[in-house]
Amino acid sequence: MTEAVSRPTLEAVAARAGVSRATVSRVVNGGDGVREPLAERVRRAVEELGYVPNQAARSLVTKRHDAVAVVIAEPEARVFADPFFALQLRGISKELTAHDNQLVLLLTEGRADHARVARYLAGGHVDGALVFSLHLDDPLPGLIRKAGVPTVFGGRPDWSDGGPGPVYVDSDNRGGAREAVRHLVGLGRTRVAHITGALDQTSAVDRLDGYRDVMGDADPRLVVESDFTPGGGERAMRELLDRCPDVDAVFAANDLTALGALRVLREHGRRVPDDVAVIGFDDVLPVAEQAEPPLTTVRQDIEEMGRLMARLLLRGPGGGPAGGTSGAAPAEAAGTGVVLPTTLVRRASA
Question: Which of 312, 325, 326, 329 is nearest to 128 (CA)?
Fold first, then answer.
């Protein structure tokens, strides 16, 4: 067994710096009113002794926990299978780390988990929450509002409960979808189909609306509902070929759906893009580049979405729960939607 090593205390730092314990506490916890020469002596003593503030004690003084909950309203299997979530988490993590905040990941396997997440958020463990992949009938927004936790949402909200509008970050899903479908029409394709995402999510609804903006009078059989997964893309593509064997182009709601569609087209001997052109959405690498053929897709900056969500939360109205951050986009108490642009990335599939 190894003996426990005693940790340096505030008193030890105060003795080394030749100041009072209260002065050390103010410097360590970011308080004001300490002259710079004294503050510098305290910081030097902290470094020399290797003092690490006790987070629980610090929270009592600052009323901050330097921790942010990231709530993903999806089962664990979905989160760890879809690279979209990894990219968004990477952006969030980078921004939180830059401001010395911890990320607490909360997943919801089912409705029973919603109350657990709400209790955790209301329990004062974190300074705020970043919530994404919500579904249209999800009770989480109402539960989080009751918990009184500052929150930024990923994706356009679809609810209104009479309170202040939510702060959110999204991509131009509808505009990106329009650009993709116009590209297919510009290639001379006349039977352009759409495999949707899960239509209980606003991103899927917006992409379907973008498709309809261009193909408003298209055969309704050319639209098949799916769920943003490769398996869903396979099932939808088979259904689409049964319904409309003369389909000559497919706009898939995301890259994983497009991968499933490509597999089925190969199985049926359909050449891409000669017989059927295919476009996805996301530009998740290496998925899009390593598809066969490489996938033309609508790029959204997923990592930047995560960064911006964290930035908005850290700033917040009046400086935010975890302090200010330079260059952050505005997030007002009345609600702000930040919509990032999308671009069409052309590869071999269309």
Answer: 312
